[in-house]
Amino acid sequence: MSCKMTPRSSKSIWAIARKGYNAMLHINDYHVSYGQSEILHGLDFQIGEGEIVAMTGRNGMGKTTMMKALMGIIPTRSGSLTFEAKEMSGLQTYERVREGVAYVPQGRMIFATMTVEENIETGLAGTSKTSIPGDVYEIFPVLWEMRKRRGGNLSGGQQQQLAIARALVSDPKVLLLDEPYEGLAPVIVDEIEKTLRIIKEQGITTILVEQNAVRALELADRAVILDTGSVVFDGSAAEVLGNAELRAEYLAI
């Protein structure tokens, strides 16, 4: 299916029609500001159940702001964010966690002085669970081996696995990952991607922000490209990989 270009303001919008698309997350005319400065301008896109979506674009285009807004860390100025037909834009962060949204921030933000086990247990807050489910350690066997070790003593890749494990124990339906490959060797990125494929098989939707756009697009089903706070592409990740003009214009690759 080919992409088409239509004018919107002064930008070209690359879009792919998806007939019969069954979305679980709807973002409609979504505006987000820091104080009086609007960062995200009327975003419109949808995300389906079980998809891996790469949210890409050059630095400073609004990707991390979008992730924080989805998580409720930054308030919505106007517009609608519905998740499984429920309006989410007015909910606090902890309420979004209860609804099934989890967030792994850039830099991992693990607790360095706490053990691996204690770090994961912090993700149980707000759930009915009293202990870490065994399937988490099945996905991350290295964390079982190091469960009594302090988080600050883990390698960067192990810390990233720990941050993802902490998010997964809340039983999310949507997992937000901000720069999960940052500072990691390619072989460790391979392991993280293997984990994300396992998560996908479990029906969890993943939204991935990553500066390594090629790797993110190779993993993803779909891509949403942001440019100066606006959506300029919403469609197949393979379409982006195969379109040199689009990549040069918005991703500089």
Helix and strand arrangement:
Layout: E1 4-8, E2 11-15, E3 23-34, E4 37-48, E5 52-56, H1 63-71, E6 76-83, E7 86-87, H2 93-99, E8 101-104, H3 116-122, H4 134-139, H5 141-145, H6 156-168, E9 174-178, H7 186-201, E10 205-209, H8 213-219, E11 222-227, E12 230-236, H9 237-241, H10 244-250
Parallel strand pairs: 2-12, 5-10, 5-11, 8-9, 9-10
Antiparallel strand pairs: 1-2, 3-4, 3-6, 6-7, 11-12
Task: Describe the overall structure.
This protein has helices at 63-71, 93-99, 116-122, 134-139, 141-145, 156-168, 186-201, 213-219, 237-241, 244-250, and strands at residues 4-8, 11-15, 23-34, 37-48, 52-56, 76-83, 86-87, 101-104, 174-178, 205-209, 222-227, 230-236. The chain is an alpha/beta fold and 253 residues long. It has a domain at 23-41 and 49-104 and 172-250: P-loop containing nucleotide triphosphate hydrolases (Rossmann fold), CATH 3.40.50.300. The strands form two sheets. Strands 1-2-12-11-5-10-9-8 form an eight-stranded mixed β-sheet, sandwiched between helices. A four-stranded antiparallel β-sheet has the order 4-3-6-7, covered by helices on one side. A hairpin with a 2-residue loop joins strand 11 (222-227) and strand 12. Helix 3 packs parallel to helix 6 (156-168). The longest helix has 16 residues, at 186-201.
